[in-house]
Amino acid sequence: MSKNKVYGGFCQALLFSGSVSIPDFILNHYTELGIGHKEMMLIIHMMTESSTNSDRIEEQITKKMGLSLEEYNIMIQNLQTRGLLSVNSRKAKKGTNREYDFSGLIDQLLELWGINEFKQMSSGSERNGKTNTENMPDLSQAKLTSLFEQELGRPLTGLECEHIEKWLMASYSEELIIEALRRGVGAGIRSFRYLDSILREWEKKGIKTRLEVEAEDQNFQSRQNRKNVKPLKGLPKTKSKYDNIYL
Fold first, then answer.
1. Contact (Cβ atoms closer than 8 angstroms) between residue 49 and residue 60
2. Are the C-beta atoms of 181 and 151 separated by less than 8 Å?
3. What are the DnaD N-terminal domain coordinates in residue numbering (predicted)?
């Protein structure tokens, strides 16, 4: 068989062996979500194998990637811990199989896309005639990133750093961001979405400083205390036998 025929046969087999479609946005930004290169390859394999409805996903992926089952399970656990993947069990002919759901990954990509859009809109125009201060948030961001990493006990992901930058660009003060972090850690909730909801709530109330936050807390506590005090209205007045003595 000639070399040209061998080459042509290979190309034909290659084209008809199937293909995998991965959006460019994932490939361009997965490292910003803290996803490693090996993890990304695992995700691609999982998406491919899941679409085939195979009952031997783990076996096929570990074989293709040269992983042990233990390495595979550790990587899966790491993806779950970071909210990128959820695993559900379903009954099969032989025991149970695991189904993989990447809704968490999609949600985080959507969040990242929104942040990027926000940055483009902000950098494309100067608001209310203010001068451009692009370099000013850099110092604040570095300081806040360091503080967040100390409080959370780990390095921040690219998406989390983007969150901090977005807050600064939205004119949230450093002290307000730090106060939101303090309250989140105090409540045992370290989600950046939770911190974002705190900042948005303060923004709705026109709160811009930590002192205003404390004043709002005091006002709230006062309102709660007033609600808890039961009025004595409506109680019947006790009539004395001497009330009419001088009538």
1. yes
2. yes
3. 22-113
Query: CATH assignment of 19-104?
Result: 1.10.10.10
Please name the residue that has the structure tokens 């595979």.
72
- Phi, then psi, of 243 in degrees rounded to 5: -60, -40
Domain edges within the chain: 19-104, 134-224
- The dotted CATH code for 134-224 is 1.10.10.630
10 Å CB burial of residue 136 (0-12, 13-18, 19+) is exposed
β-partners of residue 98 are 89
CA 39 to chain centroid, in Å, comes to 18
Give the DSSP per-residue string, 54-79: -S-HHHHHHHHHT--HHHHHHHHHHH
Q: How far apart are CA 80 and CA 58, in angstroms?
A: 16
This model's pTM is above 0.70: no
Element containing residue 96 per DSSP (H, E)? strand 96-101
| pLDDT tens track for 83-100 | 888 888 777 666 677 788
